[in-house]
Amino acid sequence: MPCWATIFLWGISGWAFYPAQIASIIRIEPQASMIALSLNASSMYLGFAIGGALGGAVLATLSPNDLGWIGGTSVAASLLVHLARGWQARPKPVKIAG
């Protein structure tokens, strides 16, 4: 039974933020929301495919024990890209001459 509980919690944590993400995309540009939502879904499916291909390559060349650290490295790299992108998007303070 603990296995099912873990899978349940993993599923909830993985999809809990998806409705908020959709709402944010629609709020940014309501007129283009259909295109933006389809691009968002396409990018998610591309990520799923890349993850499956990477996992398959690991299993074909290394051992199943290597899946954890390679997956963790992928997550860490994604987090770094996200943080770097957020850093670039911050507004710069305006200096007012006075």
UniProtKB/TrEMBL annotation:
Single GO molecular-function term? transmembrane transporter activity
Which positions, given as ranges, span the membrane? 6-26, 38-61
The Gene Ontology CC terms held by the record are: plasma membrane
Q: Where in the cell is it found?
A: Cell membrane
Where would you say this protein principally sits, based on its record?
membrane
Q: Which InterPro entries match?
A: MFS_Efflux_Transporters, MFS_trans_sf
* UniProt keywords, alphabetically: Cell membrane, Membrane, Transmembrane, Transmembrane helix
How this chain sits in the membrane, per its record, is:
Multi-pass membrane protein
Source taxon at top rank: Bacteria
Give the protein's recorded name: Putative integral membrane transporter protein
